[in-house]
Design goal:
By secondary structure, this protein is of the alpha+beta class. It has three domains: 58 residues, no CATH class; 142 residues, Reverse transcriptase/Diguanylate cyclase domain (Alpha-Beta Plaits), CATH 3.30.70.270; 82 residues, Orthogonal Bundle (Arc Repressor Mutant, subunit A), CATH 1.10.10. It contains 13 helices and nine strands. The strands form two sheets. It has a five-stranded mixed sheet with strand order 6-7-5-8-9, sandwiched between helices. Helix 7 packs across helix 8, helix 9 crosses helix 13 and helix 11 crosses helix 12. The protein is elongated, with a radius of gyration of 25 Å.
Length: 295
């Protein structure tokens, strides 16, 4: 195929790490044999580039070259042959979305830093220059990964501010393409509302439900539930922290630098004024959802 293409595009070159550098004036593609080829943009009209993209995978040179494992996952996610995909699948897995500020770090530098934090290579599929998906397989994990700790390390070593959205472990690849795109959309929704740097899919469900709810319903919920506390940011922060810390008074008081008795008093006052006892799980969740609706 390459020889046939070269007859049409005389500038065609094959990427070789040792002898050929990526040229910004070239359009780059990946073949079915995982070879990276480049064609001078002067030879490519828009129609040519679109046609080549039908049977070649466009390659963005700002991203690291896909490893064999990354290429495997790329093909699994985007395959139309579910039977072939199932045959390649061996282990339970999860997607972990990450997001950084734009132009904060080069993708190659970030990938090298991430790989140093894992005992084995973790596939990374880039969405753009500051977002991507890491893929964890259970067999690769020797211990539970603490993404808050990873954030601390990256911030300390590289001054990179990053957020992680940790998806659930899945046992098969049925509807994997839908799950992949849904998880990315969910992560972007959650981080537009959440102040936390690490969110899990389970913890993010309230955000996703709120995002899908009718605006008039949300207005009614926050007015009825929050009442006179609607614009009391200090009290709402207290309630939100209390819920996030599993209704634990001691931990909440510690987190908010409050005396335990002061917190107890403020919880009693909230109950007295609203009729809602946020020390009861169901009532606490109603208030928490109202706070999210307010945002």
């Amino acid at each position: 195929m390459i020889q046939k293409l070269r007859k049409i595009y005389s500038s065609l070159i094959i990427y070789d790490e040792k002898h050929v550098n990526f040229n910004q004036n070239y359009k780059w593609f990946i073949t079915d044999q995982n070879e990276i080829i480049g064609i001078d943009k002067k030879e490519l009209a828009q129609k040519d580039a679109s046609l080549l993209a039908v049977f070649l995978t466009p390659y963005d040179i700002q991203f690291p070259i896909l490893t064999a494992e990354e290429q495997k996952w790329h093909d699994i996610i985007h395959s139309n042959d579910q039977q072939q995909v199932s045959n390649q699948f061996k282990h339970s897995y999860r997607f972990v979305y990450f997001s950084m500020q734009e132009n904060q770090i080069e993708s190659n530098t970030f990938k090298d830093a991430i790989q140093e934090l894992f005992s084995q290579q973790i596939p990374i599929l880039w969405i753009n220059g500051h977002e991507g998906i890491m893929i964890e397989e259970k067999t690769l994990l020797e211990e539970k990964i603490d993404y808050n700790q990873i954030i601390d390390i990256l911030m300390s070593d590289l001054y990179v501010k990053i957020s992680f959205f940790v998806g659930p472990f899945l046992e098969n690849v049925e509807n994997i393409n839908h799950h992949y795109h849904s998880l990315i959309k969910s992560a972007q929704t959650v981080f537009s509302k959440s102040k936390k740097s690490v969110e899990t899919y389970i913890d993010a469900v309230p955000y996703l439900l709120i995002d899908q709810s009718d605006s008039e319903l949300l207005d009614e919920i926050k007015q009825i539930i929050l009442q006179e506390y609607l614009n009391d940011d200090d009290t709402l922060k207290m309630v939100e922290t209390f819920v996030q810390l599993n209704l634990n008074i001691s931990e909440t008081a510690k987190e908010l630098y409050m005396h335990r008795n002061s917190l107890q008093y403020r919880l009693d006052r909230f109950h007295e004024k609203t009729g809602i006892d946020i020390r009861q799980f169901q009532q606490a969740m109603a208030v928490y959802l109202a706070i999210l609706a307010k945002r």
